[in-house]
Amino acid sequence: MPKRAIYPGTFDPLTNGHVDIIARGCQLFDEVIVALLVNPGKSPLFTVPERVEILNEVLTPQFPQVRIETFEGLLVDFCRHREVNAIIRGVRSFKDYEYELPMILMNRRLNSEVETVLLVASEENSYVSSSLIKEVFNLGGSIKGLVPNLVIDRMNQYRDRQGASNS
Ligand code: PNS
Q: What is the Å distance from ligand 1's center to 102 Cα?
């Protein structure tokens, strides 16, 4: 049986920290499903189709064992439907661990067969988060080297579109 894992997230936008964790997950698992949460409650920078496109364009050429999917509702239900028993999450700090622990325990309570594997990104990605990327970008700072180049292109396009619609 191939070893499969799900790497869930909102990926708004995809960062080099996410890519780092995916690369590590690919060392451990035969197949990694990158699962994008469709969350109508949040107001994201990129739409779900835009994020799926970015994930596909960046990840598919680099990682043949990665598949991109979207999910709604409970993560453990998605795991059950895909018959996957492992969830990958990345942690950068104790703060991340504190955020992850209740989710891990709740997911375990909801489905005791699902195990969460916490992976640590490399030091150079240890401070990179999607929210910080958006803040720095919006304030005109450089995010080069922190996200895939395609993400920078798409963020520039987004800003140009916003500029055009505001002028
Ligand atoms: O990238 P994020 O925002 O840190 O990812 C959070 C995510 C998608 C892993 C989490 O919000 C999630 O699993 N949502 C699905 C709903 C769910 O299962 N909630 C109960 C988890 S304890």
A: 11
| pLDDT, position 29 | 98
The pTM of the full predicted model, rounded to 2 decimals, is 0.96
Task: Say if residue 167's pLDDT is above 70.
Answer: no
Phi, psi of 67 (to 5 degrees): -125, 140
Q: Which residue has the tokens 């994008």?
A: 36
Give kind and range of the element (H or E) at residue 149.
helix 149-166
Q: Which residue(s) pair with 115 in the sheet? A: 86
CATH superfamily of 4-165: HUPs (3.40.50.620)
Question: How many of the other CB atoms lie within 10 Å of CB of 54?
Answer: 23
Rg (CA), the chain: 16
Which residues are annotated as catalytic? 18, 42, 92, 130
Q: Whose CA is nearest to atom 17 of ligand 1?
A: 74
Distance 166 CA to ligand 1 centre (A): 34
Mean predicted confidence (pLDDT) in 66-82: 98
